[in-house]
């Protein structure tokens, strides 16, 4: 008996087999491609009554969300009409809030401004699905 034990039987080590999960990383890129329409952007319906949020990302994987918020707000409000606010979503994404859908849809089609600053503007699909229900 071990001098450090309390007198009880020593537990035996149980050998358990770990299940190996199948590797799902390989093959999915080829098996499942995302369906996209060329030159299509989601837009807000004209009868939308709640604030419209358009998300903006950099095309060059630049951390646009980490830039100075005053600089970002000034950049967007000087060049785009109808902006109610600019907020940081994460390091790579910024949300721009519009009060009405017309200026939001107009901003989505401003290819000159977005191309000049190398930005990509979009409306996520779940945000529009909430509007339809």
From TrEMBL:
<protein>
    <submittedName>
        <fullName>(apollo) hypothetical protein</fullName>
    </submittedName>
</protein>
<feature type="region of interest" description="Disordered">
    <location>
        <begin position="1"/>
        <end position="25"/>
    </location>
</feature>
